Structure formats: structure tokens, C-alpha cells
């Protein structure tokens, strides 16, 4: 059964902010390498991975393909759709990149495949924080991080309309 984690705040992230935060993560990772290559966790890890690979001059990029959430609903388990050749050496010397860690279930599943890799996310929530090695920005557990690829421009409600809908 799917479970909803009770998100009641939105933290919208723009393309510019995501680029800045991914570059800040790359600065931190630059002192921890060199890495053999980078494993991006699809799909959310793909954009930060491209930015970080550029900054660290990594050309060897692989993916672990998995699916945990359907929109804002968490599924019963992490579905692993594709692994990586980095598993041959348990991920030693590899960098894993994802957009965020929330509950940590995705990170734990990928760590089981690549226990020796360095796991980095741009954003982290408290429950998942212990499962990653590096991150840049922490947000509270009841916050949904709204990535730029999940946003569209719409006409905002006025304050009077918003107040009216609360009455
Ligand atoms: O810490 P967790 O509770 O496991 O949540 C974090 C994971 O959930 C999201 O992926 P999602 O399954 O939504 O797929 P997507 O990357 O394709 O959007 C996000 O990109 C992380 O990979
Ligand atoms: O806060 C989030 N934002 C986007 N995707 C997610 N997947 C788990 N938590 C989140
Ligand atoms: Mg993901």
C-alpha cells in the first residue's frame, strides 16, 4: 500500500538555486575525490549529476534506475529497475548522486548495492540524513521539496482569495 508522509510545507527550488546548490556540493566533494566515476540515481539525481560531473571533470557516468514515489505518495518498496557495473567492486571509489534523501529508503537500497561508494545528495531531511555521506541543504521532514522540473507557471491567488478559502 502507498503511504503519504504528511507534507504540509512546500520548498520551491528554482533552476538557479538548484545549480548553485549542486555546485556548492561539488566544491565539498572536490576535496574527497578523486572518484573513478559517478552513479546517478534516476530520475531526480540526473540533473545534479550532470552539474557535479562537469565541476569534477568526471566523464564516466552510470545510473541506478529506481522508483520509490508516485508524485507525493511513497510506494511500499523501492523498485530497482537497473543496477550498475560499479557493483563489481562494491562501488569503491565511485560517487553516488541523488537530488535528495527523505526517509532514506532509496539511499539504503542503493547503498546495499554499492556499500563502498560515497553517497551525496543536494538536499536532506532529518530521517534520511544518516544514510548519506555529504549534502548541502537540510529541510524539515514535513516539507516537500518542489524541484524546477515539477513546476509550471500559473496565476497566483490573491491574499484575499487565499484568506477566503480558509473561512
Ligand atoms: O529518501 P526517500 O524517502 O527514499 O526519497 C528520496 C527519493 O525519492 C525521490 O525519487 P522518486 O522515487 O520520486 O523517483 P524520481 O527520482 O524518478 O522522481 C528522490 O529523487 C529520491 O531518489
Ligand atoms: O520532498 C520531496 N520532493 C521531491 N521528491 C521527493 N521524493 C521524496 N521526497 C521528495
Ligand atoms: Mg529519485
Automatic annotation (TrEMBL):
GO terms for molecular function: guanine phosphoribosyltransferase activity; hypoxanthine phosphoribosyltransferase activity; magnesium ion binding; xanthine phosphoribosyltransferase activity. This is Xanthine-guanine phosphoribosyltransferase. Residues 14-150 form the Phosphoribosyltransferase domain. 5-phospho-alpha-D-ribose 1-diphosphate binds at residues 43-44, 98-106. Pfam families: Pribosyltran (PF00156). Keywords: Cell membrane, Glycosyltransferase, Magnesium, Membrane, Metal-binding, Purine salvage, Transferase. NCBIfam families: PRK09177.1. Its cofactor is Mg(2+). Pathway: Purine metabolism; GMP biosynthesis via salvage pathway; GMP from guanine: step 1/1; Purine metabolism; XMP biosynthesis via salvage pathway; XMP from xanthine: step 1/1. The lineage of its organism: Bacteria, Pseudomonadati, Pseudomonadota, Alphaproteobacteria, Hyphomicrobiales. It is an enzyme of class 2 (transferase). It comes from Reyranella soli.
